[in-house]
Design goal:
By secondary structure, this protein is α+β, with helices and mostly antiparallel strands. It contains three helices and six strands. The strands form three sheets. The protein has a two-stranded antiparallel sheet with strand order 1-6. It has a two-stranded antiparallel ribbon with strand order 2-5.
Length: 95
């Protein structure tokens, strides 16, 4: 998506916002991250803080970290567990 925006020469800085409608009842499940419990989203509408893209070529995983943290926070977790302690995107895959 970011590559397409760059090819279309969309000017930066660019703010991106995310909203999820119809989220109530969906489950945040991350047993592979040493959290075996399921947590149910209790709100129907989720609106997330904007993130600002200041330059092209940014790693989307790092650029969107705050959004992923907010999504998992809506599921009852403190943050997204797909990042290491330094904030680098490190998704764990099921074996």
């Amino acid at each position: 998506m970011l590559t397409l925006l760059e090819q279309l020469e969309v000017p930066i800085p660019l703010q991106i916002r995310l909203a999820i409608i119809g989220a109530q009842g969906y489950v945040g499940h991350i047993s592979r991250y040493d959290h075996p419990e399921n947590k149910i989203i209790d709100r129907n509408e989720l609106f997330f803080d904007a993130v600002t893209l200041d330059s092209w070529g940014v790693d989307p995983g790092i650029f969107l970290k705050s959004v992923f943290d907010q999504i998992w926070n809506a599921c009852g977790y403190q943050y997204s567990y797909s990042y290491d302690a330094d904030g680098a995107w490190k998704p764990r895959m099921d074996s």
